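ok, trying the design again with the full structure, not the truncated one.
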């Protein structure tokens, strides 16, 4: 079949939609103009150290060294995040990866990066969803910045419960399900990607493991970050089923 026809057929069968409002968008777009404008979080709104909109560095130190986020976790982005987690629309991953790559390319705050990794997902969950959304974001950033992508380092074991089903104390313990292979990461500066940064526990645990293997620095990149409770318009969720 002529490639042009093939593409048109694909667009008819699977029309491209905005992950925010579900409106039809052009084949080369990842969000509609209105949603794109509302979703982007100003780079300076996020603390470069903890990755939060309301800095929590005075209360807690994390194992990652630097952090950045593309969007706030709020009423504008929650529909897009839900669609991404329900295997309906992955455009939000591409949209946020482009913003993050741009900030990393132009930012003086993050230094050199040697490789890009996602926060891992348990294989059975990944099979069910069809993908690990953190990996979609990480792969896109790696491609845009022409950096090596690695998912052979960190892995996750099944715990039975999703983060949002747990109490705060259980959440902290639940991150014990993340593990690392015995791989030498001496001197490596690693970009670690996830979809939502809530408590920071997940990124913190993964960064801790990477440093145990010798990583020199870990930069945490999140598609969306939650605001402090007083600025929040809806309850936060680290993970939806
Ligand atoms: Zn839209
Ligand atoms: Zn901070």
């Amino acid at each position: 079949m002529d490639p042009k026809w093939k593409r048109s057929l694909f667009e008819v069968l699977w029309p491209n939609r905005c992950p925010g409002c579900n409106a039809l968008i052009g084949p080369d777009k990842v969000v509609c103009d209105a949603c794109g404008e509302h979703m982007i979080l100003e780079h300076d709104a996020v603390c470069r150290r903890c990755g939060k909109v309301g800095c929590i560095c005075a209360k807690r130190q994390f194992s990652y060294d630097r952090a950045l986020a593309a969007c706030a976790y709020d009423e504008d982005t929650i529909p897009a995040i839900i669609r991404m987690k329900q295997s309906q629309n992955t455009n939000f991953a591409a949209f946020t990866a482009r913003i993050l790559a741009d900030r990393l390319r132009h930012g003086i705050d993050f230094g050199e990066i040697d490789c890009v990794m996602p926060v891992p997902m348990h294989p059975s969950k990944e099979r069910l969803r069809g993908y690990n959304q953190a990996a979609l974001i990480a792969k896109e950033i790696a491609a845009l910045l022409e950096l090596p992508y690695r998912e052979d380092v960190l892995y996750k074991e099944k715990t039975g419960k999703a983060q949002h089903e747990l109490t705060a104390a259980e959440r902290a313990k639940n991150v014990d399900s993340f593990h690392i292979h015995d791989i030498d990461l001496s001197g490596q500066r690693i970009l670690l990607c996830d979809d939502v940064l809530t408590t920071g526990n997940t990124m913190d645990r993964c960064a801790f493991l990477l440093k145990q293997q010798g990583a020199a620095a870990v930069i945490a990149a999140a598609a969306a970050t939650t605001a402090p409770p007083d600025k929040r318009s809806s309850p936060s969720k680290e993970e939806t089923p």
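Keeping the full-length input from now on. The pocket of zinc ion (ligand 1) is lined by residues 18, 20-21, 23, 31-32, 34-35 (CB under 6 Å).
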